[in-house]
């Protein structure tokens, strides 16, 4: 993440930064939470990569994701992060523009009803849910929207059929 921010012209500073950007991290610490809270309280804008609370791990089970880190900082500051990744439909619309296609000509494929599928719908894209991640057929029933396609895994997807 730090390298990508540098690549697009941002610098990393701990002296009154303009933004606090939070993403999933294997090394996130209490000290980093304290810094984030202090910077946001001093006026830095709070940015999150995605609100996912858990991520599936190889071999089964789940681990905390970016949303758990965002929740801790939000609770401490009383400020909600602006999410720049999924389910931000602006990100998806910009991606289709960069690809030179209209949103209705694209399909958002993902494993989460609450980020991937809703983001695709809000961006005007077709949607395909793969059941190899977080969402299941049973959990799909909890949502007021549904994907256009459902696959057990990405291996089942025939691009010609979408």
Architecture blueprint of SSEs:
Layout: H1 2-7, E1 19-22, H2 30-41, E2 45-48, E3 54-56, E4 62-64, H3 66-77, E5 82-83, H4 89-99, E6 107-110, H5 113-122, E7 126-130, H6 137-140, E8 149-151
Parallel strand pairs: 1-2, 2-5, 6-7, 7-8
Antiparallel strand pairs: 3-4
Helix pairs in contact: 2-3
Q: How do the strands of the widest beta sheet line up side by side?
A: 1-2-5
Q: What fraction of residues sit in β-strands? A: 15-25%
In the predicted model, the low-confidence regions spanning at least 5 consecutive residues are none
Largest sheet: 3 strands, parallel
Rg estimate, integer Å: 18 Å
Descriptive tags:
single chain, alpha/beta, three-stranded parallel beta sheet, 6 helices, 8 strands
Your description of this structure?
- The chain contains six helices and eight strands, in the order αβαβββαβαβαβαβ.
- With 162 residues, the chain is of the alpha/beta class.
- Strands 1-2-5 form a three-stranded parallel β-sheet.
- A hairpin with a 5-residue loop joins strand 3 and strand 4.
- Helix 2 (30-41) packs across helix 3 (66-77).
- The radius of gyration is 18 Å and the shape is globular.
Task: Provide a concise account of the structure shown.
The protein is α/β, with parallel strands linked by helices and 162 residues long.
């Amino acid at each position: 993440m730090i390298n990508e921010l540098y690549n697009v012209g941002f610098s990393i500073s701990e002296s009154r930064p303009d933004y606090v950007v939070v993403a999933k991290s294997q090394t996130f610490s209490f000290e980093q939470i304290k810094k984030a809270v202090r910077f946001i309280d001093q006026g830095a804008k709070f940015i999150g990569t995605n609100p996912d609370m858990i991520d599936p791990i190889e071999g089964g089970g789940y681990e905390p994701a970016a949303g758990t880190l965002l929740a801790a900082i939000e609770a401490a500051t009383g400020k909600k992060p602006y999410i720049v990744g999924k389910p931000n439909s602006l990100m998806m619309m910009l991606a289709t523009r960069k690809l030179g296609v209209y949103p209705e000509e694209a399909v958002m494929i993902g494993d989460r009803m609450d980020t991937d599928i809703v983001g695709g719908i809000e961006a005007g894209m077709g949607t395909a849910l793969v059941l190899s991640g977080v969402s299941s057929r049973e959990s799909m029933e909890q949502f007021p929207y549904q994907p256009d396609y459902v696959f057990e895994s990405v291996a089942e997807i025939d691009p010609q059929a979408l």
